[in-house]
Specification:
Two copies of one chain form a homodimer. Helix content of chain A is 35%, strand content 19%. In chain A, the strands form three sheets. In chain A, strands 3, 15, 16, 17, 18, 19, 20, 22, 23 and 24 form a ten-stranded mixed beta sheet that branches. Chain A has a seven-stranded antiparallel beta sheet with strand order 2-6-7-8-14-10-11, with no helix packed on it. In chain A, helix 7 packs antiparallel against helix 8, helix 9 packs antiparallel against helix 10 and helix 9 packs parallel to helix 13. Chains A and B meet through helix 14, helix 17, strand 15 and strand 21 of A and helix 14, helix 17, strand 15 and strand 21 of B.
Chain lengths: 658, 658
Amino acid sequence: MKKLETQLQHRLQAAPLKHVKIQDAFWSARQRNVIETVVPYQWDALNDAIPGAEPSHTIENFRLAAGEAQGEYYGMVFQDSDLGKWLETVGFVLSIKKDPTLEKIADDVIDLLGRAQQPDGYLNTYYTVKDPGNRWTNLRDNHELYCAGHLMEAAVSYYEATGKRKILDIMSRYADYIASVFGTQSGQKRGYDGHPEIELALVKLAQATASSKYLELSKYFVDERGQQPHFFDMEAKERESGSSTSSLSKKKRLYDYFQAHLPVREQKTAEGHSVRAVYLYSAMADLASDYNDAELMNACKELWKDTVSRKMYVTGGIGSSAYEERFTVAYDLPNDRAYTETCAAIGLMFWAYRMLQIEKDSQYADVMELALYNGVLSGISLDGKSYFYVNPLEVWPDTADFRNDMSTVKVTRQPWFGCACCPPNIARLIASLGQYIYSSNETERELYVHLYIGSELNVDISGKAIRLTQQTNYPWDGQVNMELALDQAAEFTLALRIPGWCRKAVISVNGQELVAPDIANGYALLRRVWQHGDQIQLTLETPVEVVRAHPLVRANAGKIALQRGPIVYCLEEADNGANLQDIALPDDAQFDVQYDEGLLGGVSVITTLATRSVLQADDTSIYRTQAIDRALVPITAIPYFAWSNRTRGEMTVWIRSN
Amino acid sequence: MKKLETQLQHRLQAAPLKHVKIQDAFWSARQRNVIETVVPYQWDALNDAIPGAEPSHTIENFRLAAGEAQGEYYGMVFQDSDLGKWLETVGFVLSIKKDPTLEKIADDVIDLLGRAQQPDGYLNTYYTVKDPGNRWTNLRDNHELYCAGHLMEAAVSYYEATGKRKILDIMSRYADYIASVFGTQSGQKRGYDGHPEIELALVKLAQATASSKYLELSKYFVDERGQQPHFFDMEAKERESGSSTSSLSKKKRLYDYFQAHLPVREQKTAEGHSVRAVYLYSAMADLASDYNDAELMNACKELWKDTVSRKMYVTGGIGSSAYEERFTVAYDLPNDRAYTETCAAIGLMFWAYRMLQIEKDSQYADVMELALYNGVLSGISLDGKSYFYVNPLEVWPDTADFRNDMSTVKVTRQPWFGCACCPPNIARLIASLGQYIYSSNETERELYVHLYIGSELNVDISGKAIRLTQQTNYPWDGQVNMELALDQAAEFTLALRIPGWCRKAVISVNGQELVAPDIANGYALLRRVWQHGDQIQLTLETPVEVVRAHPLVRANAGKIALQRGPIVYCLEEADNGANLQDIALPDDAQFDVQYDEGLLGGVSVITTLATRSVLQADDTSIYRTQAIDRALVPITAIPYFAWSNRTRGEMTVWIRSN
């Protein structure tokens, strides 16, 4: 294993959730929503206690596995993961705020988990209840290790919140058992899961238990992926009792759906199912860091470049094909058939967050923030009760409802899904948002601020306790005020991210503007001996920016998008009437921005003048040589994340440019 | 039945194929190609004599039905129609030119048809061979009457070419049998076919046999369609032995796929499978004419308006959804996922041709011509050996090959199809092209010229034999020279179509320019006593026209198309390099037109200057606020019909407008 460059040895540590308290005009209400509404609702869903909703059967499956109920397994093969995501969210919630009632519910369900665990440590309700004897026979399709991964993440989250080891022990036993089944030793299976997830979960488990063997197991899964002879062929052959595997090898794009078309170190382009991809890449980044593995880090960087510079929507959404929920070819980013699964944008944040700790480069924080405020947040309604699984950048309701090739596009958010992956994923993201804001580095005495969110951080640097309080109306306003509370003066670097979207940032310390602050990789580095009560003011200019896509992005040729700060805007029919495609923005458009407290939970709205066709009522010919007159009319843009919270209607992010 | 307005009583009669001889620089080679290449190739296909091709089994199915071979039925449920289309084409070919060898083959296969006919007149190989006893149990899906219709069309074509009655008698017997099974009498089925076709075929059979009962049967099928209680429900109930039909009634768009959602007279919008639609509308126009049925004609006109002003591509293609090969909603005309089946453009010609005879309005001829030179002709390669079933207006090969929602788009023409409907349909259209050029009206002494194609017409008007000879390099040139050969002077109106695309037309008779010719409904009406040897010159200005779509056509917002004469142009990668979406045409673009004899079988090429991005090699960011410089570069457009005859590559009809 080659050594990474020096910066890898000086990686950042994200501030743990318990050390960050969010108090923010934009985010606090959203966290409260998760805590007060989403978590109880999801618990009811897991227990089939929501009238009219498709049954989940998740808890019942665990009761069946524990021998405490009679009946049949019901649900997806990966139903266990729903409990994992919920329990992980509960851990985050308890890190934010004690809640004995919730903790009791969680402790009880953890006890149930323990009783459902098999004597050898195995813990999966599908195989225990429905198909005993066939464990590990279809890693490619059946999400066995994926479910284990989500329960491991839950274990770590719950342990970190409560200090209770029970679930950590349960999942460690399961991990020990998995480590005995899989590996390169004789008698072990050379397998890995079709859906990456356990890889990043094992890294967390290794950290929580201070046990390097889980890191080794994660590394084994990552490096085994895509090796020849191909495990998915071998296991298929075994399943089919020695029949030929020729049908598999004939597949057009062999195993790229699973990111198993090549050993991961040889992968240069983001391929296949986009959620699986970013979960895998997240684990790769973790391992590159923990093992100082330059080769693996280079693979991550190649994949990152391909993802964010060729396959990412302007909203931070990824995965442009509904079929296989996957990446397609470079620059193929149709807006009206964008898949851009909410979970994929969340996964992109996971990956960006990990890259950021290794490289201290704001490009990762920029993408993390972009996805957060746009492609992730669009997945949940303002009231937290309905969700988008698919997040298109253009919606034409009548067409989307009619056309079969747009059948995955829902015109309005849906209350819940049979395959309920996105709602719990948003919930755990919002609940754990605190850990994305700050990082620090003990040895280099650095404190990084990645996101501007009103919050209080408690961190030790060189043994000195530091409290940083951040106040802001971000994202509606680029003014950020920070104050330090120190027991004693401390020398360290306060690194403030200058967002990629910001052309002008002014920094003052104690009212004194810094003339030429040291800026490296997108962070202003303020190194000094800080005193108790020091005030830092950051002023980010947030004019409306006209964004253009690379000319190879076919769908956006001749179009622009509006962005202000991290917020990507869209036009909605509710404000602009129908036929949004007809609106064209002049080159010299002037923008007005107004914060509207009463609109969509409080948003800044952009207004400007644009041109629209002036069509005579009797002008019905579909083709003509005469150009149609156009008139200047006012248009209104709202934040993309807030669309579809009023009436059903058209929406577009990209607007024609004159 | 209400009386139609007066013009219906003075409808035109299309000149029969035998009276028109095409001698044309553009079309003669294409007709020769059909006669010399396509017809023999298709005969081999019907006989499974093409190495490597999917078997057709069509002839073998007839042998099985005749009891002259052993084996199983093979092929689509509508396999018989392939023989119908081929035999109809053979009739057209024999009308153009005697060919004893071909006629012998046809006579033999007609004898086989006779032997395959059942004692009661029934003639369908699928039910005879594969499912005897279940005739007429699934009209909705199984194309039984559809196959009958194609064989009836063949019968009329072959009879008109050869005067031989045998196939006409066979199909009359079959029609008599069908008339006994279907109708409103007690004991008769109130059914009709899921795929309209027999309706228009019965009109032809009625004309050829001078038997009004086939007209009555056609009228029955047309008027029964969509009535309640719904026949498709009733027959489904019968098939499912009395089970509930609730699954059917729950369908979102009930029976519009079959144009059976409403009685046809109540239909106002073009719905469902586009080929089925235009076949039905063609029969409706026939019946409106033959019965002087104003109500039916009004339905036709409503449907026409909806089709050509809301659901037609600029190429004359129709049907914008691959799923169900159907119309969708108004103005939903995506270019890259256009279905625009070749057969649908052909069917649109059928319908336009019928409307034209009733209304003498050039709008119908305009659409007929538009479809012919663009959406139809694009379906066949220049060498006549490969075909497009689907005719998109934009092709991005890598994306189309990768994306599942573009899976019906073929990037290059294909040699043959398992479901081989389009190739024989193009063949019969090109072979019968002569009948689309001229119409006449005995009582009003009118001779209409709809299409400008080098040809010789022999027609009687008021008992006087008239020969009109047309010479032209159309569509490359708008100069048309006509000469009359008369036995004696004759007074009649020579009506010359002034195409909708033409802004300036000059007409001279014997070198004398007509200053203000009488123009009505798009035709210049030249009424005079014509003399032998009279020369008529028509000069149509054919500048390059910049065409815009109605602002509600979302896919074409901010774009233009180039058209010259009836020819719609496109950009191909072969001439312009890749990334055609980046090309933008300035408002003041000047066009140069050159005829290139050596290119694509001889085409006029348009060149102009357009702008393209000047991208620095290191400019890889996918989104940016800086506009990219653009430079003027030459671009070349070729006729749309001729695309994909060189190398695989991108193509687009619609070009960004600056």
